Amino acid sequence: MSATLIDGKDFAATIREKVAGHVRHLHEEHGITPGLAVVLVGEDPASQVYVRNKGAQTKEVGMASFEHRLPAETSEAELLALIDRLNGAPAVHGILVQLPLPDHIDAAKVINAIDPAKDVDGFHISNVGLLATGQKAMVPCTPLGCLMMLRDRLGDLSGLDAVVVGRSNIVGKPMAHLLLGENCTVTVAHSRTRDLAQVCRRADILVAAVGRPQMIPGDWIKPGATVIDVGINRIPAPERGEGKTRLVGDVDFDSAAEVAGAITPVPGGVGPMTIACLLANTVTACCRAHGLAEPEGLTA
Ligand SMILES: Nc1nc(=O)c2c([nH]1)NC[C@@H]1CN(c3ccc(C(=O)N[C@@H](CCC(=O)O)C(=O)O)cc3)C=[N+]21
């Protein structure tokens, strides 16, 4: 492997230290404790792990963590009533409703019921609109984490060719807006893109967010490019024993690392940054709610 490894786990720990510093300051100087509410509907085991990790890290940085675990049968009206209460709760500065929601609940309706100022996921239509028009917004955590790693590695991103593979509302689209904000030349590619290999080969910055295990091989990557792998896919790993699995990204790491200049691993890349940025967004939301100076280095 010749690429530099971008250590998201390490970087995330640095972000959490910065967050913890701001939390201490808010507490000591202003008597304020930032609070994050996480709402989980149903029993999806993978979701439960994320919720547990988020809760633990929230407390670790000194913020208040409020967890709401609701049964899978919870009605949309009940969920909306909870959101309404959290919107009105002064101790809650950030609200995250874990996705996906059960089929009988309209996810867009629920997300758009969150007070945009408390929307630490940045999924509310008004935050989407603010980001798309270059105004101050709450920025989705995964693309924010990717941007922080790119700035750290490359400094000024102006004029670079950025290719985002994937057009989801939670990663691809907001990532493209952030990169445009950095003056990159941005291409958003997806499953219908013609000659995806050739499009990817143009990229100085390649962000893979499609959710297809190891679909981008090394020979799609421009020598020296910076590769950010957002995918977290669980695949069978019979070499580890009967019935075992392992996590891989959307990029074929081994072949890509021979060509790229720098690359994020999976696990230990974008994933930990996502959670760190959730904490960062909660501090940002808290500062804005109280009309205080925003934390430096933790926003887009
Ligand atoms: N409203 C909402 N916001 C989210 O941000 C959100 C969500 N819903 N639903 C679920 C997905 C998933 N997600 C992850 C965050 C961190 C890791 C993470 O830290 N992964 C570790 C590995 C963890 C493991 O070993 O399983 C890593 O990549 O190193 C993974 C997944 C946030 N999500």
Walk me through this protein's architecture:
- With about 300 residues, this protein is of the alpha/beta class.
- It folds into two domains: about 30-115, 3-Layer(aba) Sandwich (Rossmann fold), CATH 3.40.50.10860; about 140-270, Rossmann fold (3-Layer(aba) Sandwich), CATH 3.40.50.
- Helix content is about 40%, strand content about 15%.
- The chain has ten helices and eleven strands.
- It has helices at about 10-30, 45-60, 75-90, 105-110, 125-130, 140-155, 170-180, 195-200, 255, 270-290, and strands at about 5, 35-40, 65-70, 95, 160-165, 185-190, 205-210, 225-230, 235, 245-250, 260-265.
- The strands form three sheets. It has a six-stranded parallel sheet.
- The longest helix has 23 residues, at about 10-30.
- The model has no long low-confidence stretch (mean pLDDT about 95).
- Bound molecules: 5,10-Methenyltetrahydrofolate (GUE).
- 5,10-Methenyltetrahydrofolate binds near residues 96 and 266.
- It holds the Pfam family THF_DHG_CYH.
What small-molecule ligands were found?
A: 5,10-Methenyltetrahydrofolate
User: CATH superfamily assignment of the largest domain?
Assistant: NAD(P)-binding Rossmann-like Domain
Order of helices and strands: EHEHEHEHHHEHEHEEEEHEH
List how many beta strands DSSP finds. Answer: 11
Mean pLDDT: 97
Q: Could you say which overall geometry the principal axes of the C-alpha atoms support?
A: globular
Summary of the model, kept short:
With 300 residues, this protein is an alpha/beta fold. 39% of the residues lie in helices and 16% in strands.
